[in-house]
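Hi all, long-time lurker, first post. I run a small reading group and we've been trying to get comfortable going from sequence to structure in the token notation. Rather than ask abstract questions, I figured I'd post a concrete chain and ask someone more experienced to write out its structure so we can walk through it together at our next meeting. Sequence below, copied exactly:
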Amino acid sequence: MSQPLETAAERAAAFIGFACDEGVRRNQGRQGAKEAPAAVKAALARLPWHLPEGAAAYDAGDVVCVDGHLEQSQAELGIAIARLLQHNMAPIVIGGGHETAYGHYLGVREALGTDARLGISTSMPISTCGRMMTGRHPGRCFGKYWIKTIK
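-- Answer (accepted) --
Happy to help. Here is the structure in token form:
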């Protein structure tokens, strides 16, 4: 996302890849999500696009996790998402696992400001928060958010 952006049409979406298996690897899951951005974008490129008037779709590039530096990749994803939101584009993250949620949160928080209230809905009961920060748990990224918010 080093290219200059112009503020998008009223209804715009941007696909941003998150080429990362590190979160899945840390949770001992099945890896392969890092291949998703290229595969999904290639499949989408072959489809006919009949968007309504005033709507647009963009390819915002990829964030690539290098040498297992997940936290750096999440921060980069957050920067990219904030930039898209500031240019009136709805980000659609392709690839990665649950760890994309934290990067997405960072971007939304940056775009809206620290005083904005955010509602976060998860598919797990809130009682699992204490277990999320230790060991293998698919909701570890959500635990990061809750712990940072509480502090």
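A couple of things your group might point at:
The chain has a mean pLDDT of 82.
The radius of gyration is 16 Å.
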